[in-house]
């Protein structure tokens, strides 16, 4: 057997095998200063992402109009306390949405990371639209202080067959910029989470890239149109054609 | 449901029923506000406590807060109430129970003897009359001891769940985190993985990998992959090395159904796991996780406050002789527990109420990035829970769970708590640490632990140790 590794070598080896914070060393029971500050930096970035606002004009797609709407959560503090209000469209903003009966509505929601959608949503939408060339698409709706279910009310107002909500996911320490995509057939208030399909962890270069994410979302949209449903029931209908479900959290 | 009122300083405070009194008496937290059951004002909150203080404990036996006919958790609570254990408390009010628990003349053994007589609603009620220091002082008296391959919960001990999660369940990455934790003296509560994927085949692979390490190094601890009980039943059937059976549980039948379980299924899973007879110093095989807010999250709270519902989950837990019960207190997010103050309060309540009801309580002292909390809040909660005698906490590399995306306590944090409070690992595990050279004769961690473990030949560790 080879000589056992010295402690420093072992720490380096462990670190090469996982992105977990292993082999950090210790001073007494505590962390050395550098890994302590590494953690604080990652946490600070995640905190900043939670509280960042999505700037007006940040979402722009050539050839597509953009409509800005609000949820009923008046600010971030309210949004964090009251998920129910983040799921509802502001009553004054429903009138902004034309009932054009499109095949597809796309909603960009700030969610828990405006930074994520600011960085990734435009490129993802462009990649998705390229994959659905003959579909009619509503103006892109940008929803602030919004949770996934706000897409139900928006999709219903637009009379869209399918709504895709692209939303900033809860920031983790390893990424504060991850987007999730939620696909819902026949959007209407009161849809349950098991009536949606989800593609999560979209954040190139470390997470899912735009091309693969757009492939998965487009596949789900086509399957939903064929089946006339999304969610658990879509999986039953078209199981082998669908991408693997996201792991449970 | 009988209405109640109390007159305080010229104001009459009315409450619709027992559930309303309990909810209004609860220290402020966002989940109760979201559910619409929180007190209307700070004064009403204290008025509810005045009213609660004078309520006889027997009230909770005659007025179920969720109907017996429609909820099997209520039926479990009522049908298994131990009147002999309750006898010493039978004439007390909630306020008198608080004073009895705190009295110098009441020791831990006396409290433990009453555990099966204390319903979850009684535990919740008395906790609402207690300050944080009361929750610490009483919990500290109570010793709840359980065992499988080592002994958890002895006074003066603090055990650690080694939580080596990985976003893709990569066995080498997980093994690296396990080794890192062992070198820091963690893992005596359980080596427990939350899998990213829930397939039975994947879980079986992980169970085999942990078992190889545990068996190869002769570690007196237990392993667990935290998957649904139906998966565990299937894994037992396939002959996988299942030590513990894990399940998330809650305090109402409807919430448990949303988790895909009922009480009968838990019994079936417990029996299957017991049948493997893998324990050495004991046969407590169940590992439960809970957390305030899960019933509201499942839209099945019946107008009851989240802390009372949490205690009802403990009534479920104690029907199955668990080795470990863990409240994952800050995981659910700020709409249930908004900030460090609310998380701390809930953590101390959960620990106290669980111990009062006779459970081996551990705490996942944790927060998400959208809660108003940081590591300073975790340090405060950890220190207070250590003083309170918490049975076990989590050990996550660097406090950063890279799979679940939240922050818990680290191997370092556990070491800190043991050092500043003079707490030691489970006795069998402590002896193992010394025997393999991970600690010196004084019980201090060695800096050359990797060398000690490298003399073993374990395939799962070969890539790590060279």
TrEMBL record, chain A:
Look up keyword Hydrolase and say if it applies: no
What keywords tag this UniProt record?
Bacterial microcompartment, Cobalamin, Cobalt, Lyase
Q: What does this protein do?
A: Catalyzes the deamination of various vicinal amino-alcohols to oxo compounds. Allows this organism to utilize ethanolamine as the sole source of nitrogen and carbon in the presence of external vitamin B12.
GO molecular-function annotation terms? cobalamin binding; ethanolamine ammonia-lyase activity
Return the Gene3D superfamilies for the record.
Answer: Ethanolamine ammonia-lyase light chain (EutC), Ethanolamine ammonia-lyase light chain (EutC), N-terminal domain
What does the record give as EC number?
Answer: 4.3.1.7
Keyword Lyase on this protein? yes
Binding positions for adenosylcob(III)alamin per the UniProt entry: 148, 169, 198
Pathway linked to the protein: Amine and polyamine degradation; ethanolamine degradation
**Catalytic activity annotation:** ethanolamine = acetaldehyde + NH4(+)
Q: Which HAMAP family match?
A: EutC
The protein here is known as Ethanolamine ammonia-lyase small subunit
What are the GO BP annotations of this UniProt entry? amino acid metabolic process; ethanolamine catabolic process
What binding details are noted for the cofactor? Binds between the large and small subunits.
Where does it sit, as one GO cellular component term?
Answer: ethanolamine ammonia-lyase complex
Cofactor (UniProt): adenosylcob(III)alamin
Q: Self-association or partners: how does it assemble?
A: The basic unit is a heterodimer which dimerizes to form tetramers. The heterotetramers trimerize; 6 large subunits form a core ring with 6 small subunits projecting outwards.
What protein family does this chain belong to? Belongs to the EutC family.
Q: Where in the cell is it found?
A: Bacterial microcompartment
TrEMBL record, chain B:
Q: Which GO terms describe its molecular function?
A: cobalamin binding; ethanolamine ammonia-lyase activity
According to the record, the segments passing through the membrane are none
Question: Would you tell me the Gene Ontology cellular component terms?
Answer: cytosol; ethanolamine ammonia-lyase complex; ethanolamine degradation polyhedral organelle
Where does this polypeptide localize?
Bacterial microcompartment
Instruction: Name any Gene Ontology BP term.
Output: amino acid metabolic process
What EC number(s) are associated with this protein in UniProt? 4.3.1.7
By its UniProt entry, which InterPro entries does this protein fall under?
Aldolase_TIM, EutB, EutB_dom_2_sf, EutB_N_sf
Keywords annotated in UniProt: Bacterial microcompartment, Cobalamin, Cobalt, Lyase
Quaternary assembly: The basic unit is a heterodimer which dimerizes to form tetramers. The heterotetramers trimerize; 6 large subunits form a core ring with 6 small subunits projecting outwards.
Query: What is the official name of this protein in its record?
Result: Ethanolamine ammonia-lyase large subunit
The protein's organism comes out as Sphingomonas prati
Q: Which gene encodes it?
A: eutB
